[in-house]
Amino acid sequence: MDAAAVRAVVAAVMALAAHAASLKTCLKIQLKHNLKQRIKENNIMKKVIAALVLGSSLAIVPAAFAAPVELSGDIGVKYKKTTSEVDPDTSGMVYTLRVMAGTDLGKGLSAYTRLGAQRARLSSLGDINTDHYGEDKKGVIDLDQFGFKYEKDNLTYKLGRQDVTVGATALLYSRPDSNIGKKAFVDGLSVAGTVGTADVTAIFAKEDNVGDDSNWVYALRTGYALGENTNVGVTLGRFRSSTEESTNHWALDGSYKYAKSTWTAEYTKSSSRNDNTAYAVSLDYDFDGKTGASITGFRVEDNGAMGQQSDFDNNTRGIHYGIKHSLKENQEIEFTYKDQKGLNGGSKNTELEAMVTYSF
């Protein structure tokens, strides 16, 4: 970021302090015009983001004003291309900013809030909920996560709006942290950590949805180490829908590490009468601690996942390929390619992504 751009950012933040109503407009302009540039003034950028997030989070956690605010996040620049046998091909750039602010409130309790912003060439390429923002919406900026964390012993409790996945491979359910904006996460309580020798994750939450849909997600996964390189897990869950069939789910997963490679497999089944299974098998290979590759095969039937919200496309089978390389400690480049086909005679589609991420 050159000196002129830095001065423009600082001036914008000073203006926001006096004119809070212009927050979204100013940051949209900043995001659109400056995400392509490499950030050289890291300390200045942190101060800018701190002013934005701290000012916004005061409405959620008043105590944060007096306590230090810890910041983390990333800026991503991505090229995405999709092809389909039935829909027009799409391609274009996507620019994303995510900032998480945390404030220690003492005795293991902290507050958090997240600012998410994204601008895409086409609305279909982005990670926002277009049912909420509109089908033609290409860019958003919103506080999309907030709540409290509590850490005690070996467990972390999180209460508030948050991202969530269910299953070792996110096969059962996924509203991931890559989502941006409102109506993209869940509101509730999650628990993660260890109890004795078991790894435990749990979620009890209501989806933040558009309209009157009142869907709830309950899940508990317990994992055990059978040896230094072998782990197994069991997941039990329920998806309670206000408009569709409510379903119960179970899943088994296992992983095995050998040398530089790790195999992971997961199988799940729901209480639906038909099309009620899903599975995923992946191989990850770490070349040198900086470069890794992965390949994942999957098949998700129409009713195999919770609320049809697997991390893999629903009613689809396919293979995902990935390569990731760390350019520096806080800079990463990643390539992914998805080759998929709908079940029951469905159409074929592909997706290619190339993304550079700068973390702070």
Please explain how this structure is put together.
With 360 residues, the protein is mainly beta. The chain has one domain: Porin. The chain is built from four helices and 18 strands. It has helices spanning 3-18, 23-34, 42-57, 130-133; strands at residues 69-84, 90-106, 109-120, 139-152, 155-162, 164-166, 173-175, 186-195, 198-207, 216-225, 230-240, 247-258, 261-270, 277-286, 291-300, 316-328, 331-342, 348-359. The strands form two sheets. It has a 16-stranded antiparallel β-barrel with strand order 1-2-3-4-5-8-9-10-11-12-13-14-15-16-17-18. The two termini are 15 Å apart. The model is unreliable at 1-65 (pLDDT under 50).
What's the SSE blueprint?
Elements: H1 3-18, H2 23-34, H3 42-57, E1 69-84, E2 90-106, E3 109-120, H4 130-133, E4 139-152, E5 155-162, E6 164-166, E7 173-175, E8 186-195, E9 198-207, E10 216-225, E11 230-240, E12 247-258, E13 261-270, E14 277-286, E15 291-300, E16 316-328, E17 331-342, E18 348-359
Antiparallel strand pairs: 1-2, 1-18, 2-3, 3-4, 4-5, 5-8, 6-7, 8-9, 9-10, 10-11, 11-12, 12-13, 13-14, 14-15, 15-16, 16-17, 17-18
Strand content: over 45%
Q: Measured on Cα atoms, how large is the radius of gyration?
A: 21 Å
Tell the overall outline: globular
Largest sheet properties: 16 strands, antiparallel, barrel
Q: Which superfamily, in CATH terms, is the homologous superfamily?
A: Porin
Count of discrete domains:
1
Mean pLDDT across every amino acid position? 87
Distance between the termini: 15 Å
